[in-house]
Each structure stands twice: as C-alpha cells, then as structure tokens.
C-alpha cells in the first residue's frame, strides 16, 4: 500500500510548518542558531498538537549537514533518512509498551556508543509518564549527565505523572491546543494540494470538532474524502459529525428561556426519534446556551458567529436572567459526565429541572414519590390492628417492604459481581448462601447460612467489591454487614419455585 494517511503525509517538516506553537518553535530555532541546544527536552500538551513531530524536526536540525540556520534543509542524506524513518541514530521509543526497568537499562547501555553517521544520537521517548517508577529512577543519571553525543526528547500528555526529578533535568515546553483559525488555514492548504473542494464553513466545523488536535482534524478530513469524494458540502460534514445544524438546539434553548416544559420534552423526543446522537446534540445546546450567557454578560466579541446569529442570541437573552442561563449551562454541561448518548432521560431530567420555576423542584419531583409507600398504606393498616400494637406493626411492615425490595433485586447484585474475585467466582458466595435479612439505615444486613461464606465476604477486599456493586444496582451508597442465620426450610422444590415465579398458585389439598 503506497498511500499515506493525511496526518503522516502532511506532517510538518520544519519548525516554521508547526501550527499554533510559535512560543516553542521560536525558542528552539534561536537555540539552534546560537548552538545552545539542551541535552534533554520535555514536550507536554494534548494529543495531536505536534510534540513528536517537533522532536523529529529537532533531530533533523541538530544533525543536518547543511544546518546552522535554525531549520533542517530536508535535502541532505541525513535529513531524508530521518524523514523516512530509516536513520539508525534517531530512536523513537513508546514508553507505554517499553515501560520496564529492563528496557531502560538496555537504553543506558546503548547511549554509550557513538552515533553511526549523525552528529547526535537522538532518543524520542513518547508518553514518558507511562514509565514505571523504577524505570524512571534508572533513567535519572543518564538524563542528568548524558554523553555529549546524546539528545533526549521526552513527550507526554500528562506531565503531572512524570517524576519531579525528571522534570527538573529537562527544558520543558508546553504545547497548546491549536486555535481554530490556524487549523482552518492548515486544512485549506492540505485541500489545495490534494485537489479537494470544500467550503470554509465546513472546515470550521471540522476544526471545532477536533478540539485543538491537528491530527484529529486531518483524520476527519480524510474520512470525509473517503466517503464523499473530493467535493464536499456543508450538509455532508454535518451528517458525518452528527451535527443537527443547531435548529432544534436553538428551539430547545427557547423553551428553556420560556420555561415551556411540554414543548421542550416534545423537542427532545423528536430528536430521539430521528436517531440523532444525543451527546452531540447536547454539546450544541451547551454551546448555544454559552452564547446566550456571553451575550447577557456583554461579551459578544467572544462569539464566533455571523451578525444575524448574534442578533438572535441578543433577542433571546433579553428574556432570561443571568442566574437562569448560568444554571442551564451548568446542568446541561453536567449531563456529558455520565451520558451514554442513547437514552434521552438525562437530557429530559436536566431540562425539567432547568425549566421549572423557582421553588417548584422539591414538591414536583420528591414529594409524590414518598407519599405513595409511606402515607397511603397507613390508614388501612391502622384499621386491622389493635391500637396498642399499631405503631410497631406499621414500622415493621414498612421495614419489611424495604427489605423485600432488596431481596427482589438481589439477583441483579449477584449478576453484577459475576467474574469478580481472585478466581472469578465471587457470585457463588452470594447466590444461594445468603440473602438480605434487614436494613439498618444505609447498611444492608446479609444473613449467611455457613460461616466460611460469611468470612469470605467479610474480607475487606471482597466486601468493597460487593458494596460497590450493591451501590451501583440500587443507585445509592450502601454498606453491608454480615451475620450468620438459620436457613429457612423450603417446602417446595425447584420446579414449584419456578412455577410460582410464572404466576402459579399453591392449592392446599388437605383442606376441604
């Protein structure tokens, strides 16, 4: 296969071609011109911002046969060998898969040898934060005082995980997310060279979806070319990215401002029925609400929209308070945390909470739920039981109802722990050897029939696993307490139990 993906084919080959990192490239260029190149560099920043590419350009620049101008010539034999990945003196190491101390010891032995052809041996270690602590410590001495012919370039997306002792031995450069304007300019250059016809508005959408990663933007562009060919229209980009064109996002924002719950839920339902990506729809809604908030705060210059779109935002923002808009942005931004993108329920709950008038959240969402189980059965029970016994019986019935709820769903907990434990059989200790027998606040009391089952679950390691799954199944944090209990005699066999579960009734044949 001779073709290359865009991010490899159009990888920058000089410092001047690196997009959006002028604070890094200018410093490195000056260091190359003055001969003040450090022995170790640490490049930090998000993915796709040019860290590894800059490391390769630096390797070419320090070894270029026609160097001295702060840039590689890309014409000499060494520059071409490094570009094509066949230079033996430039070694790229993936720390995620070579993270042990043995690999670092081998590296320490290799750095002693002189370069084969180049002036410097350059080691580019990607994702250096993945090195184990012993491996990082083994690298320290070599990193502090390397041989004069060795240059280290370390790259990481998580610098806070790198040992401080390694950080102090490197010159650190922080790569920033690439601005949208710079990404659009770069993408337009690629389209011109590849013969791709695409509107600037489409490139803006691609750049926005890439969230500052040039590699992601180039991959999205290549996806579009592979699917639609060299002529790409705006609606095709929106379809591939799952963008709804903001129409219903704007519509839902209006319902939030107007506090129209019925119309808002209908809008969410129509988006769901059309099969749109609800996560992407939510992002568009948050972006639109952010625009309303900025307009309300008088910061319109921070919005990259057409004048007519800003005028629409201004008109809608006049009908909403700053508190209401701020609450809406927080609520819908929080939906993204646990949102699976398929169920509309998180979106609906956020909308209802946001659209309800002040003071109505508690009575409309909480009170009806608690009235049914607690208050409704009380009068009926009071009539059946004599007065002195009524209060404890009522409490007992409520407690029994609570524990019966946990018993009815205990199988879900058993299924949830399946595969856990040192041998993957933790569910066996909960399936038929125990059952919930009482509820004490937020603690579920588990009755075990055999002592060794009880001791197994009381082990802190396994107790934590069970408590975690219990909390997941019942939707609230619960603890467990283990006791020994007598096993109830079962008067029916497994077939009768199965029949009862299907709705059958037992008829006592002895009674006439």
Describe this structure in a few short sentences.
This protein has helices at 6-9, 22-34, 51-63, 77-83, 101-110, 133-144, 164-167, 180-194, 200-210, 214-228, 234-241, 247-258, 261-273, 278-296, 307-317, 322-335, 345-355, 361-365, 367-374, 377-384, 390-408, 410-416, 428-431, 451-458, 460-474, 494-501; strands at residues 40-44, 90-94, 121-126, 150-156, 171-174, 197-198, 231-232, 434-440, 443-448, 479-484. With 512 residues, it is an alpha/beta fold.
Structure explained in plain terms:
The protein is of the alpha/beta class. The protein has four domains: 6-174, P-loop containing nucleotide triphosphate hydrolases (Rossmann fold, 3-Layer(aba) Sandwich), CATH 3.40.50.300; 180-241, Helicase, Ruva Protein, domain 3 (Orthogonal Bundle); 247-358, Up-down Bundle (Zinc Finger, Delta Prime, domain 3), CATH 1.20.272.10; 390-484, 2-Layer Sandwich (GMP Synthetase, Chain A, domain 3), CATH 3.30.300. The protein has helices at 6-9, 22-34, 51-63, 77-83, 101-110, 133-144, 164-167, 180-194, 200-210, 214-228, 234-241, 247-258, 261-273, 278-296, 307-317, 322-335, 345-355, 361-365, 367-374, 377-384, 390-408, 410-416, 428-431, 451-458, 460-474, 494-501; strands at 40-44, 90-94, 121-126, 150-156, 171-174, 197-198, 231-232, 434-440, 443-448, 479-484. The strands form three sheets. It has a five-stranded parallel beta sheet with strand order 2-3-4-1-5, covered by helices on one side. Helix 16 packs antiparallel against helix 17 (345-355).
């Amino acid at each position: 296969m001779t073709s290359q993906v865009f991010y490899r084919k159009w990888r920058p080959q000089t410092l001047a071609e690196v997009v959006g990192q002028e604070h890094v490239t200018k410093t490195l260029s000056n260091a190359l011109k003055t001969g003040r190149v450090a022995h170790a560099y640490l490049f930090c920043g998000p993915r796709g911002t040019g860290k590894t590419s800059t490391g390769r350009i630096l390797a070419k620049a320090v070894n270029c046969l026609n160097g001295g101008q702060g840039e590689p010539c890309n014409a000499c034999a060494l520059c071409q060998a490094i570009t094509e990945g066949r230079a033996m003196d430039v070694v790229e190491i993936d720390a995620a898969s070579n993270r042990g101390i043995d690999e670092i010891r081998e590296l320490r032995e290799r750095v002693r040898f002189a370069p084969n052809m180049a002036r410097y041996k350059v080691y580019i270690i990607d994702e250096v934060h993945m090195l184990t602590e012993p491996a990082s410590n083994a690298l320290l001495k070599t990193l502090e005082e390397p041989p004069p012919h060795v240059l280290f370039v370390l790259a990481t997306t998580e610098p806070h995980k790198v040992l401080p002792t390694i950080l102090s031995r490197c010159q650190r450069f922080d790569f920033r997310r690439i601005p949208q304007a710079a990404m659009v300019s770069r993408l337009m250059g690629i389209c011109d060279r590849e013969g791709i016809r695409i509107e600037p508005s489409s490139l803006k959408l691609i750049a926005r979806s890439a969230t500052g990663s040039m590699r992601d933007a180039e991959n999205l562009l290549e996806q579009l070319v592979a699917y639609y060919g060299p002529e790409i229209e705006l609606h095709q980009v929106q379809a591939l990215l799952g963008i709804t064109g903001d129409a219903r996002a704007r519509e839902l924002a209006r319902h939030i401002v107007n506090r129209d719950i019925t119309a808002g839920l209908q809008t969410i339902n129509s988006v769901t029925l059309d099969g749109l990506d609800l996560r992407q729809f939510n992002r568009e809604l948050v972006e639109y609400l952010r625009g309303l908030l900025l307009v309300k705060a008088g910061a319109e210059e921070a919005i990259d929209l057409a004048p007519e779109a800003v005028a629409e935002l201004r008109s809608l923002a006049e009908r909403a308070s700053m508190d209401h808009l701020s609450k809406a942005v927080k609520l819908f931004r929080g939906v993204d945390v646990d949102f699976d993108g398929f169920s509309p329920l998180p979106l609906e709950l956020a909308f209802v909470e946001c659209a309800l008038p002040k003071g109505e959240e508690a009575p409309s969402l909480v009170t009806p739920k608690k009235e049914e189980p607690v208050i409704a059965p009380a009068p009926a029970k009071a009539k059946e039981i004599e007065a002195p016994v009524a209060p404890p019986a009522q409490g007992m019935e409520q407690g029994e109802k609570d524990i019966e709820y946990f018993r009815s769903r205990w199988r879900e907990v058993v299924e949830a722990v399946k595969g856990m434990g040192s041998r993957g059989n933790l569910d066996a200790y909960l399936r038929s050897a125990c059952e919930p027998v009482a509820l004490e606040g937020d603690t579920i009391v588990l009755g075990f029939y055999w002592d060794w089952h009880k001791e197994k679950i009381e082990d802190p390691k396994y107790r934590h696993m069970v408590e975690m799954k219990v909390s997941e199944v019942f939707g609230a944090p619960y603890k467990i307490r283990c006791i020994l209990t007598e096993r109830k005699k079962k008067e029916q066999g497994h077939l009768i139990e199965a029949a009862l579960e299907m709705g059958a009734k037992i008829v006592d044949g002895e009674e006439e």
